[in-house]
Structure formats: structure tokens, C-alpha cells
Amino acid sequence: MKIIQLNKEDVYENYRYMGISAILCGKSVTKKLFDNLLQLSEKEKAIIQLFDSEKIATWKHIFIATLNAIAAFKQSRNIASQLSLEILLYATGQRQIRDAINILGVSEQTRKVAILILGEDKEKITMIFSQITELLNGKEEEKLLEIHSEEKLQQLLNIFKITKEEIDAAIRKEDKKEAIVKCILDRISVFAVEK
To answer: Are 160 and 147 in contact (CB under 8 A)?
Structure first.
């Protein structure tokens, strides 16, 4: 799990650390599981957001979306009433929560789950991640955050409507995967400005 201490200006409420990882699930993500995650989030005073990792372009995708969502909340520019949903909006570049959930949300068929946890300290984030891993009967697989297949690459191109011209403009020094990540991060930045 990648745990990042937020800069002073990025801290919102008591969320000083961000944990990002992925889990290969051994069981379905059910309504009951979501209820358990909500209870865990409330009990531990943490933000927990799950994403379909097959539609995430590296840990940077989640990191930048989260920083932009925090900034939106701090500046009262948020669309969603919950920070976790605002993060989902930024990660997809959508304005409608339903659309964002359809794009990056998890379902009972999802077996590769990216996880974001915002919390007070590293130990709490690590503990929450362990509990989520256990609830999902899963195994941590950070490499699921990477663009590991041509299928995932094509899916990202389609979801974020990235054109060949954009890739060509971004590809200067990076390879194609890095160019796609750059294009998606640019989309998140544009979304922040357009709001």
C-alpha cells in the first residue's frame, strides 16, 4: 500500500494521510459489504472509496483526483455532499454521481478493486486496509493499479475519450501508457477548472 502524508495545505478536517492500493477479491462486493465499509468508515473517522481498478490509470489517477476533490471541499466548490463521492466525480471527470458510479464504481462482478483511504495516521490506514482485505477475502495486488494489459489501455482510452492526437502530443518522452496517464490527469485538472 502506498501511504502518502498530505501537505499542510491539502489536509481536510483530520485527514492527514492517504493510502492507495488494490485488492484481488475472493468474494463479491455486495450491499452488505458496502454497509460494513460505511460502518468502518464512521467508526474509524476515515474516508474509504472503492474503484474498479481496471479503469484506474495508476495510483497517480486516484491521488490527483483526491487532492482536487479536497480542494473543491475546502473552497466550497464541491458538487457532491460527501468527499468520497466528490473524489469519484474527479476521478471520472463527470458531474453526475450516477455517471461516475457507472464508470468507476464497483459491482458484484468486480474482482479487481482499487482502494483509497483517507485517515488521521498511517497505522489507522494500514489497519483499515487490512480489515477491507479480510472483508473482501482478498489479497493486495498493487500492480492492478498499473496499465498492465492492452485491454485495460483500450478501456481507458474509451472511458476518457482520449484521441490519438492527444496521445501523440503527450508521448514526447513517455511511452504510450505514461502518455495515457498524463492525458487522464490533464482531464482531472480541466474538470477542476471548469467547475
So the answer is: no
